[in-house]
Amino acid sequence: MFSIDLAEDARMFPLEARHAQEFFEHIERGREFIGQYVGFPDRATDLDSARALLAKYAATAGEDGARFFGIRLDGTLVGGVLFPTFEAHYGNCEIGCWLEPDAAGRGLVTKACQVLIDYAFGERGMHRVEWHAASGNKKSLAVAARLGMTREGVMRENYLHRGVRQDTEVWSILSREWAATRSA
Ligand SMILES: CC(C)(COP(=O)(O)OP(=O)(O)OC[C@H]1O[C@@H](n2cnc3c(N)ncnc32)[C@H](O)[C@@H]1OP(=O)(O)O)[C@@H](O)C(=O)NCCC(=O)NCCS
After folding, report:
1. Fewest CB atoms within 10 Å of the CB: 8, 71, 82, 115?
2. Ligand 1 and 143: CB distance under 6 A
3. Atom of ligand 1 nearest to the CA of 7
4. Measured between alpha carbons, how far is residue 110 from residues 5, 31, 85, 148, 149 in Å?
């Protein structure tokens, strides 16, 4: 299995069903913080449902679709990034992210997203990478801005989360824009 250095003490790697135990322990530590805006912690409520979630993403990864990557800090799983959608045929994908609170504020997600975007554009010839975040999720919107993405607009009350309909901002970056950012 490959893993990629994000920092001296941090690595990212494909998150698979066999990582269910550490994934569940990580979600337990971060459940409240991560679950504020993200739906999957509510679907990983015990070890079996955590394993089923990872197995589902491993299966779609096998079909070149959605996939999960973990981030370990000093050997402990503290968060991750994902392609919630990955449509190589159309040249479009979306990136998402999460961290447990103690791992925030170090740039880990920004660096992991840079790896995913390099992969999407550089290796897979994608044209467009999207970012969807609740309008109130300022930390997530700051990551999109830090990555050089452009805010495109708002899907009004499109996301029902924990009984509340939230607005979702859509941001994106195109292949040529990423190349210009990288060369600058
Ligand atoms: C969204 C989320 C992952 C952002 O976490 P984050 O720690 O702010 O993001 P990063 O890991 O990229 O770190 C950026 C922060 O580290 C700081 N930082 C330190 N070193 C850095 C570096 N080398 N590079 C970039 N940023 C660095 C930045 O200044 C920034 O801090 P600030 O917001 O106080 O200015 C986190 O808030 C989270 O998990 N929220 C709950 C789940 C969620 O909402 N997921 C997104 C759904 S759309």
Report:
1. 8
2. yes
3. 23
4. 13, 21, 19, 11, 12
- Note the pLDDT tens digit of each residue in 11-64: 999 999 999 999 999 999 999 999 999 999 999 999 999 999 999 999 999 999
Residue 184: which pLDDT band, with cuts at 50, 70 and 90?
A: confident
Domain regions of the chain by residue span: 4-183
- Is residue 171 within 6 Å of ligand 1 at its C-beta? no
* 4-183 fold: Aminopeptidase (3.40.630)
Residue 83 near ligand 1, beta carbon < 6 Å: no
